[in-house]
Write a structure and sequence with these properties.
Layout: H1 3-9, H2 51-63, E1 68-72, H3 75-83, E2 91-95, H4 100-109, E3 116-120, H5 125-133, E4 138-142, H6 154-163, E5 167-171, E6 189-193, E7 207-211, H7 216-228, H8 234-244, H9 247-266, E8 271-275, H10 285-291, E9 298-303, H11 306-316, E10 321-322, E11 332-334, H12 336-339, E12 350-354, H13 360-371
Parallel strand pairs: 2-3, 2-4, 4-5, 5-6, 10-11
Antiparallel strand pairs: 1-7, 6-7, 8-9, 9-12, 11-12
Bound molecules: pyridoxal-5'-phosphate.
Pyridoxal-5'-phosphate binds near residues 74, 75, 99 and 326.
Amino acid sequence: MRFETLAVHAGGEPDAETGAIAPPIHLATTFRHGPAGERRAGFEYVREGNPTQERLETALAALEQGAAALAFGSGMAAMTALLESLPAGTTVLLPADCYTGLRVLADEFLPRSGIRAHRLDMSDTAAVSAALDAGAGAVWLETPSNPQLQVADIAAIAALARAYGARLFCDNTFATPALQQPLTLGADVVMHSTTKYFGGHSDVMGGALVFARRDTGYEQVAHRRHVTGGVLAPFNAWLTLRGLRSLPARMQWHCANARRIAEFLAAHTRVAAVNYPGLTTHAGHAVAARQMCDFGAMLSFRVNGGRDAALTTAGRLQLIHNATSLGGCETLIEHRASVEGANPTSPQDLLRLSVGLEHADDLIADLAQALDF
Ligand SMILES: *Cc1c(COP(=O)(O)O)cnc(C)c1O
């Protein structure tokens, strides 16, 4: 089945009792069992699993071509459950440019579980090879990366990880399986913040892991989620399932808008640089073209004139909102250095855009007037 068809139908069997086409939301926290705890329909207590979440997990596994998926209450809960399931003493390689939450997790929390992080430029495959040779047990990729849109070669790094017996994890939030499917390129686990494109409407938080194999790695994380409780609420599972039905269609429009905006910005005299893998001038363009079927709708750009000029631009926008997060219908802009805490890693002249589903002409007009000062 093609991806678009899967997105509409995966985990979407009509309700057996009523024939309802939209799936029921089961809010029950507990499920009747036999006198000795015999399960009747596979469920016992909501923290372990529930029917609405299971539908979502079935759909997510199908969309990423994985063997099993686990839904979480947030992307960070998913990421934490996976990384903390690594054996104490493991060194994990992380991208130098990555989601801020991952950086803070690695600095403040992973060391308490005996997990060391080593950060490097993942677009440099030779550097990844050297770090694996030095003894890393796991690699975390985020491609394209946040907020600088760096591209890592998933297939090449998967081959290296396999040769060194290391596990490969991939945060696929920016691309979504509509554009890139890391498990088919050799990754072991894909992570998502479903808060972003899966939900798609800036109104539901969630996270997920999709496993290439239903192996002990999967069992350990499922057990960890059951015990530590990072599960997704049934209503959030339902909203996310509703969102993913239109994921392929939305991604197509998102990408088309982003391409036009990237081209507009690249030609603008006030813009020093545009980070968008769809531009042929982007350092990761060739790799992105190989492993993605389109280039996504996240981009960042640097404004001539430094921090002040970037903040002035962001402040002059009228249609585009200044807000964090991404993947919703509305276009959002953010000065990342201002929101990255005490030690920001983003350049001060950089603005990140999550390109939404408005008409590109209106977005370009807003950017044009904002840059004209
Ligand atoms: C938002 C995001 C996360 C964290 O997900 P939450 O749902 O906010 O916990 C992780 N990685 C990336 C790339 C993100 O954009």
